[in-house]
Task: inverse folding
C-alpha cells in the first residue's frame, strides 16, 4: 500500500511546470545522467530536469569531443534513464549530424528519440541557422530546448572552449537567437559559458526559462555534468564547476581496499561464504 501511495504522490515535471517556475522566480535544477543507476539516484534526490547529454561521448565513451556519439547511442542512454525516472523532466540531446542542414532528418531524429526512448523533449545547439529544423520538430508536437553560447558540437568551428559572446556583435546575435527560440515555441534554452551580464539580459528578454552552465547566477536555472559535480572526472576543472563530492578518491580507495583484501585472502570471510 505504501508503495502505491508514494507513486501516486510523485508529481511529474512538465514543460508547463518548468514555465511556472520561471514566472514565480523558483530556480530550476538540472543535471546530466546517462544510465539507469545514476538517473534513479538523481531523480529521487529531487532534480527538476535530467539531460541525457551528448557529453556521454566524453564521460562515458572517452572521446575528446561530443561529435562521435551517434543517434542510436543517444537512444540507448535515454532508454536507460527514462526507465529510472519517476519525477524529473527528461531531455535528450540530438547528436551532431542528426538535425543540422536537413529539417526532415531533424524531425526523423527527434521522432526516433521520443518513440524509442520515451523521453519528454529534445535539445539542439544553435540559433537562426537551424530554425527550420526546430520549427519542423515543433510542428510534430515534440518539445524542443535550445542551446546557445558555447555549443560543443561546433568546437572545431570555434577552435576553443573559452567564453563566448564577449564581443558586442556576437552578444547581439545571441540575444536575437534567444528571442527567436522563444518566438517559434521552444520551451527553454541552455546558455553555456557566456558573460553573466548577457545571461541576465537574455533571461529578462525571453518568456521561456534559461538554464545556465558557466553563465553566472542570473539564469532561471543551472545545469552541470553529473560526473563533474560528483568529482568522478578529475582533469576537467573549469572556473564554473563546483564539486559536491570526491567520488574519484572514494572509488579509488574502495577498489584498492578490495584488491588488498583479495590478495591477502581476507575477502570473502566465513560470514561472506555459503
Result:
Amino acid at each position: 500500500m505504501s508503495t502505491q501511495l508514494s507513486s501516486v504522490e510523485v508529481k511529474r515535471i512538465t514543460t508547463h511546470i518548468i514555465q511556472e517556475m520561471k514566472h514565480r522566480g523558483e530556480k530550476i535544477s538540472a543535471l546530466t545522467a546517462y544510465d539507469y543507476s545514476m538517473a534513479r539516484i538523481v531523480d529521487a534526490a529531487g532534480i527538476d530536469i535530467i539531460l541525457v547529454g551528448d557529453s556521454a561521448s566524453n564521460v562515458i565513451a572517452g572521446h575528446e569531443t561530443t561529435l562521435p556519439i551517434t543517434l542510436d547511442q543517444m537512444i540507448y542512454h535515454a532508454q536507460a534513464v527514462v526507465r529510472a525516472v519517476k519525477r524529473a523532466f527528461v531531455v535528450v540531446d540530438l547528436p551532431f549530424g542528426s538535425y543540422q542542414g536537413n529539417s526532415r532528418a531533424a524531425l526523423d531524429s527527434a521522432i526516433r528519440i521520443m518513440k524509442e526512448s520515451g523521453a519528454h523533449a529534445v535539445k539542439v545547439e544553435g540559433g537562426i541557422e537551424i530554425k527550420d529544423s526546430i520549427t519542423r520538430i515543433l510542428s510534430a508536437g515534440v518539445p524542443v530546448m535550445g542551446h546557445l553560447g558555447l555549443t560543443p558540437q561546433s568546437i572545431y568551428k570555434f577552435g576553443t572552449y573559452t567564453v563566448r559572446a564577449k564581443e558586442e556583435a556576437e552578444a547581439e546575435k545571441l540575444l536575437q537567437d534567444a528571442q527567436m527560440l522563444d518566438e517559434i515555441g521552444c520551451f527553454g534554452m541552455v546558455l553555456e559559458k557566456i558573460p553573466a551580464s548577457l545571461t541576465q539580459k537574455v533571461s529578462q528578454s525571453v518568456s521561456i526559462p534559461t538554464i545556465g552552465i558557466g553563465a553566472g547566477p542570473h539564469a532561471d536555472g543551472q545545469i552541470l555534468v553529473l560526473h563533474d559535480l560528483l568529482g568522478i572526472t578529475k582533469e576537467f576543472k573549469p572556473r564554473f564547476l563546483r564539486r559536491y563530492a570526491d567520488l574519484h578518491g572514494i572509488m579509488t580507495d574502495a577498489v584498492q581496499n578490495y584488491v588488498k583484501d583479495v590478495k591477502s585472502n581476507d575477502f570473502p570471510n566465513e560470514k561472506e561464504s555459503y
Notes: Residues 247-274 form one domain. The longest strand covers residues 144-149.
